[in-house]
Amino acid sequence: MAGPLLVAVSGPDGAGGSSLVRRLATLLGERGLTVVTVRCHGCFLCRRLPVPPRVRDAGEPGRGGWARRATDPERRGSWLHRAHALLDAAELAVRLTAARLLARARARRGQAVVVTDHGPLDGLVRSGLPDSSGAASAFRWIDRRYGLTLLVETWPDTPRGRGLEEIAGPPTVLWARYRGWSRRLSGIARLDGERPPSLVAGVALERILDEMRERERAAALPEPGAAGERRHVVMSVYDDADDPTCRGGEARVVAKVARRLAEDFRVTVVTAGRHGGTEERDGIRYVRLPVGRAGPRAGRLLFLALLPFVARRIRHDLWMESFTPPFSTSLLPLTTGAPVVGIHQGRGTETLWRRYHLPFFLVERLGLRCYRHIVVRNAADGSAIRRLSPRADVQVVPTGVEQRQLDEARLGAGRFILFLGRIDTWNKGLDLLLDAYDRARPPLDLLLAGSGTPAEERRLAALVAAHTRDPESRIHWVRCAGEDRKRQLLRDSAFLVVPSRHEAFGLVALEGMSYGKPVLHFDLPALRWMRDGGDVAVKPFDVAAFGARMTELATDTALRRRLGHRSGIAAQHYTWDEMTGRYLALAHRLVDSPAAVRRPRKRGASWQTTR
After folding, report:
1. Has residue 225 got a pLDDT over 60?
2. Based on the domain organization, do 370 and 263 belong to the same domain?
3. Quick check: is 412 in a domain?
4. Residue 338 and residue 318 in contact, taking contact as beta carbons nearer than 8 Å
5. 382 and 412 part of one domain
6. Quick check: 398 and 375 in contact, CB under 8 A?
7. Is it the case that residue 348 has pLDDT exceeding 80?
8. CATH of the domain at 554
């Protein structure tokens, strides 16, 4: 199912519509469906004021005010009248969005129905604006989201055999509008409101169940031209592997996983960019959302806000979402009926709390409970996620690395200490690294290699300038110019330093280990996978101890050789083939397994057997 079925009860009798909604909610609930009812008969101005300001014209008949007629070219309505109609449409859209999210959360991929006592047909009739107006377009856009509109005809004074337009009086004009608009909208089902309420409710129930059966049959049929097509998997990640300012480890992981999934599935990668558009590369379709111009912080927030809408537009069988800071989760399981796998990059929200004093972690904790399948990079994050979301299937899938033949002759060699990664001064701990290097004064140069956003690069440039006032300073900053340059730096380095305050896994450390290089780092829980693998761990954020171990590694070639040998052996256990294979197996398990049949929550026959 694409989502909950939206049903509107329309007609001029608001009280009768509300009572029918209550009856339908009871009948549908007895058949095991999740039902959400919404009372939205008129906007909040209409509910508080008898007549919206300046909407009624002098001499217009009708109790409580009569909207201007669209048939009168001289009286198309003032700007306030049009604004009132747009306000009515906006409130209806907001209420529907909230009701659909609530229905999804309650149904948990079961059958759900949202029933409203007011629909876009009522808004079009009451507004009385031309079909070309913006308010009419808004109501028609909302109407396309509805699956069914029940038009209850309850006018006992209509003479048989005569058209409504031929009879004088305000009710005639009102019903003429209902008749006119109902011919132009889809999904209209007319009900005889003169029958007893129980019979009206029974007929309405049958129409709703028929519509749900049709939706099920349509969902089971393949799309035109889709015979033999492979299942579609969508991956979303903010970082773009082709953007040098955000070429982080997560972008490379998603690129590797997408290539492996493309062996058995159709794959689409949704990412951010300065310009929107799509492109096909290596059998993978890339969709870029134009949020990059907003900057790194606002761009991430826009990316998170757009993802639910993109998930509604792209038809998919499985969605793999790489969580994007600062809120990480985007609540995608509430907006799609397909399985969603959350790829957790690390507990960055707690770090952001300590840095900005904003409670991003509260949103993450609530959002994680919506996910039933979560992938983490390390065991420490896996334990934390299981505590926050006990019902989730949490899998630990570490990052991989290209396998290389270990050159024993180069073990222990190197000309400088290397920091390699994205430039993020606070998160990557570059200020701590420079302070430790200044205190210890090791005999090897310190080389910072990486790029970042313009603001972060300016911050690092000022920091480096403050630490290089001495003419004999041996701190250098270079920007990476591609994979070849990075490989050369790793080969020529003596050892790597990872002074991060927060890490999800440490892909750069694993790459250095594959070259037989020791790794000096703070003893963070997320980096403990390196224990006894040629690493040197220091008490978190102890600058003096970090500097002392830096000097020890820089002066002891034999120590670097022993640790480098361990690093090279340990890196051979982290292969891209094994890591991407786990994602491929997870995708097959979720896509190929039949969905479990949801049991009715109340006693009684299933709605599928009531006919």
Report:
1. no
2. yes
3. yes
4. yes
5. no
6. no
7. no
8. 3.40.50.2000
- The set of residues, in sequence order, having a beta carbon less than 8 Å from that of 131 and lying 6+ positions away, is 70, 184
Do 504 and 520 share a domain, yes or no?
A: yes
Q: DSSP string covering 378-392, please? A: SHHHHHHHHHH-TTS
285 bridge partner residues: 268, 280
- Do 386 and 394 meet the contact criterion of CB atoms below 8 Å apart? yes
CA-nearest of 519, 534, 496, 523 to 420 is: 496
Q: Which of 173, 194, 220 is the last residue of a domain?
A: 220
Q: Where are the beta strands (DSSP E) in 139-225?
A: 148-153, 188-192
Same structural domain for residues 259 and 390?
A: yes
CA–CA separation, 267 vs 249, rounded Å?
A: 20
Which structural domain, as residue segments, surrounds residue 536?
Answer: 408-571
Interhelix angle 197-220/14-30, nearest 10 degrees: 60
The rounded mean pLDDT for the chain is: 79
326: preceding bond cis by omega (within 30 degrees): yes
**493-498/475-478 β-pairing:** unpaired
- Residues with Cβ < 8 Å from 560, sequence gap 6 or more? 411, 412, 414, 494, 495, 518, 553
Does 375 share its domain with 422? no
Instruction: Please indicate, yes or no, if residue 226 is contained in any of the structural domains.
Output: no
Residue identified by tokens 């919506």 is: 370
Q: Tell whether 346 is covered by a domain.
A: yes
Q: How far apart are CA 345 and CA 12, in angstroms?
A: 53
The domain total for the chain is 3
Q: Is the pLDDT of residue 235 over 50?
A: yes
Helix (H) or strand (E) holding 10: strand 5-10
